[in-house]
Amino acid sequence: MRSDDTIFAIASGHGRAAVCLIRISGPESRTILESMAGRVPEPRRAVVRTLKDPMTGEPLDQALVLWMPGPGSFTGEDQAELQIHGGLATRAAVLRALGSLENCRAAEAGEFTRRAFLNGRMDLAQVEGLADIIDAETEAQRRQAMRQLGGRLGNAAEGWRESVLQVLALLEASLDFSDEGDVPEDLEAESLQMIDQVRGEIGQAMANRSGERLREGLTVVLAGPPNAGKSTLLNALARRDVAIVSPIAGTTRDVIEVHCDLGGLPVIIVDTAGLRESADAIEQEGVSRARARAENADLVLWLVPPEGEESAPPPARRLLRVGTKSDLDRTSWDCDLTIAAATGEGLPELIARLEEEAAALIGQGDAIVTRERHRRALERAHGALDRSRAMLVSHGPLELAAEEVRMAARSIGEITGRVDVEDVLDRLFSSFCIGK
Ligand SMILES: Nc1nc2c(ncn2[C@@H]2O[C@H](COP(=O)(O)OP(=O)(O)OP(=O)(O)O)[C@@H](O)[C@H]2O)c(=O)[nH]1
Ligand SMILES: [K+]
Ligand SMILES: [Mg+2]
């Protein structure tokens, strides 16, 4: 993969469509426009042109053509866009023509955005925000992704890094000017104060886990004895026939997940095998998967059917007891809610309760940490600041305190991609669509 190649890709979806958007980026963009669309239009002005095969001169399509010279473009390079007709043969013909040009090749997943990042058009946290916008399934996720794209985390991280570098400058000045390597008292006080300020803010940002929950979705596991009505409830919540329902105990063995939008919040509902001792090896495996999912869930709905003996729920972080089959009129449970998934009775109340639970766990959606990557980087920074603080207070070696502060700055810099993050880049950009 060469970064000075000119790349092209379909940026709109695949399959037959009214219009298909082709993006082109790189040094040959202007030449490509000239050879296929004739004269290059004025920057950022859409014009209609007949696209021609550059080799044969054969007309390929009528297209809306845009010229967006760098460095003010999305990638920072010269860019062109072709809005062609979205027929399969048309797009194949135009892609073939582009591929036949020298130094011009199909883009890899995320390559446009990677170039935008490498050319300083966006920081790494913004790139992640962009990925999240494309993946957002609910309104709250979309809003959080927009805040990240707007630079919310990146700006905070830059502020922290700035302060930490100031502390470093203070410590290095003391190193240069004091013979004994002792920090003058006022400098020490100033350094400590700045360290504590940043430590406090980072600690607060780390304490809020709602950003990751919102990005990934809350997991709600449906658990209970066989035939409790778990799969019936899953189908009712999903409003489609996802899981097999039958009167035979032990019907469900695999874990079945459905993504739902509850009041704008993403909730993953998970149906599991009924919990019981079983001689059947496959059912046993299903039961152990069910237990594992319940243990890691944000919330477990423990379904209690009217028939059969009461069994004990699995260990869970948070659990609601839901009495099922309330239409059977044999109510003897002590439950938080009762439902009859088969008739719909009690479902609106259950959904309202789930929305409340989700809102409580996700909060205001005002978190700035939205990925584990951010949390890990901040944890490292926080730890390094702790150690530098302890060293300053105990009048330990100044060089070592300065080294810890430098470590903290480096860890914070990983968030925006200011410092070397090559391994992160490959993973992140490969998760993008081609054409983004
Ligand atoms: N009367 C009544 N029957 C129900 C209700 N919900 C489920 N059932 C019945 O109970 C039986 C078991 O339902 P499932 O949804 O398969 O139960 P499950 O908990 O998924 O069972 P396993 O997958 O075997 O653990 C089926 O015959 C359903 O039709 C309900 O609200 N009322
Ligand atoms: K069943
Ligand atoms: Mg089932």
Question: Helices, strands, pairings?
Answer:
Blueprint: E1 6-10, E2 19-25, H1 29-37, E3 47-52, E4 59-68, E5 79-85, H2 88-99, E6 104-106, H3 111-118, H4 124-135, H5 139-149, H6 152-177, H7 185-207, H8 210-216, E7 218-223, H9 230-238, E8 256-262, E9 265-271, H10 281-296, E10 299-304, E11 319-323, E12 337-338, H11 347-362, H12 372-393, H13 398-416, H14 422-430
Parallel strand pairs: 1-6, 7-9, 7-10, 10-11, 11-12
Antiparallel strand pairs: 1-2, 2-5, 3-4, 4-5, 8-9
Bound molecules: guanosine-5'-triphosphate, potassium ion (K) and magnesium ion.
Describe this protein's structure:
- The protein is of the alpha/beta class.
- It has three domains: 6-118, Probable tRNA modification gtpase trme, domain 1 (Gyrase A, domain 2, 2-Layer Sandwich), CATH 3.30.1360.120; 127-208 and 369-417, Up-down Bundle (Four Helix Bundle (Hemerythrin (Met), subunit A)); 216-362, 3-Layer(aba) Sandwich (Rossmann fold).
- Helix content is 46%, strand content 16%.
- It is built from 14 helices and twelve strands.
- The chain has a six-stranded mixed beta sheet with strand order 3-4-5-2-1-6. The protein has a six-stranded mixed beta sheet with strand order 8-9-7-10-11-12, sandwiched between helices.
- A hairpin with a 6-residue loop joins strand 3 and strand 4.
- Helix 6 runs antiparallel to helix 7 (185-207), helix 7 packs antiparallel against helix 12 (372-393) and helix 12 runs antiparallel to helix 13.
- It is flat and about 80 Å long.
- The chain starts with 5 loop residues before the first strand and ends in a 6-residue tail after the last helix.
- The mean pLDDT is 92.
- It binds guanosine-5'-triphosphate, potassium ion and magnesium ion (MG).
